[in-house]
TrEMBL record:
This is Hydrogenase expression/formation protein HypE. Pfam families: AIRS (PF00586), AIRS_C (PF02769). Residues 155-300 form the PurM-like C-terminal domain. Belongs to the HypE family. InterPro entries: HypE (IPR011854), PurM-like_C_dom (IPR010918), PurM-like_C_sf (IPR036676), PurM-like_N (IPR016188), PurM-like_N_sf (IPR036921). Residues 32-143 form the PurM-like N-terminal domain.
């Protein structure tokens, strides 16, 4: 299970098993989607699989995740998502009405995001060899001219912005799965982000890096970008938008909010000259109303992420080893 958590064990699996097996330069960039030349332009292409438990949770469902997760991976390359595939792996004995509800939610999410589900597949496995419904989606989108968003483009002096409250999705899943109460209902932040990205690109096409901090949370995303770009990243803990209910839940469960998954937030690495305008554009959009500057890129400690605590001390923000909250997407 640790190899599926988005942390250090996941990175080792990708580095030592998959990258050597496939040996492709575009794949080796380890971006959220591959940007490829096609017919004189560029397309982004991404795929993702969804195994969340439970299938329905406050603020979303596996159907919503299947659309928004892939749409957001395309958006992190600056692409306008156009088409999706949807493949369902069903466990024998699963109630068909439940499958229908998942499919309905997936279709509604696609309509809200403005993408078309144009191909798909269905497989059924024996009882005990699945968990009701798994979904795989692949997506294709078009990348505008002049956009070059890659994990290795962060530079010293870049401002790091997050588009809103973090840790909400992971806590929402845990609360309903384990029947825990944290003083208020927590709803997942599951939502599409491509329109927010479009508003940011209207300010400047020269955004450096975008990343949606899903599995492994903000900590994993920042570490991956720091290592890919060879820069240090410094964040200020007091600037992190962590809702009180998430902070309380993480304290109760012994979790670091920086390592808890999100499904409707993005991290942006932006040149300081454009940071104020980009931040204003993000805050003017419903998906980025809670956007905040949380840190910057520095020349010191390249490849590492550090956080300034509320007491003025500094701590290393490392990759989680394995999976804190399994099956959250």
């Amino acid at each position: 299970m640790g190899h599926g958590g988005g942390g250090a064990m996941s990175g080792e699996l990708v580095e030592h098993v998959f990258l050597p097996a496939f040996a492709d330069d575009d794949l080796a960039r380890l971006a959220d989607s591959a940007v490829l030349p096609l017919l004189g332009g560029r397309v982004a292409f991404s795929t993702d699989s969804f195994v969340v438990r439970p299938l329905f949770f406050p603020g979303g469902s596996i159907g919503d995740l299947a659309v928004n997760g892939t749409v957001n991976d395309l958006a992190m390359s600056g692409a306008e998502p156009l088409f999706l595939s949807a493949a369902f792996i069903l466990e024998e004995g699963t109630d068909v009405t439940k499958v229908g509800a998942v499919a309905q939610r997936l279709g509604e999410a696609a309509e809200r995001a403005g993408v078309r589900v144009v191909t798909g597949d269905t497989k059924v496995v024996e009882t005990g060899h699945g968990d009701g419904v798994y979904v795989n989606t692949a997506g294709v989108g078009v990348v505008p001219e002049g956009v070059d968003l890659r994990p290795d483009r962060a530079r010293p002096g870049d401002v790091v912005i997050v588009s809103g409250d973090i840790g909400v999705h992971g806590v929402a899943i845990m609360s309903v799965r384990e029947g825990l109460q944290f003083g208020a209902e927590v709803e997942s932040d599951c939502q599409p982000l491509h329109r927010l990205v479009s508003a940011m690109l209207d300010v400047t096409r020269d955004l450096h890096v975008l990343r949606d901090p899903t599995r492994g949370g903000v900590a994993t995303a920042l570490n991956e970008i720091a290592r890919a770009s060879g820069v240090g990243v410094e964040v200020v803990e007091r600037s992190l938008p962590i809702p009180e209910v998430v902070a309380n839940a993480c304290a109760f469960l012994g979790l670091d909010p920086l390592q808890v998954a999100n499904e409707g937030k993005l991290l942006a690495f932006v040149d300081r000259d454009h940071a104020d305008e980009v931040l204003a554009a993000m805050r003017a959009h419903p998906a980025g109303a809670g956007s905040a500057v949380i840190g910057e890129c520095v020349e010191a400690h390249p490849g590492m992420v550090a956080a300034t605590t509320g007491f003025g001390a500094s701590r290393v923000v490392d990759l989680p080893l394995g999976e804190q909250l399994p099956r959250i997407c």
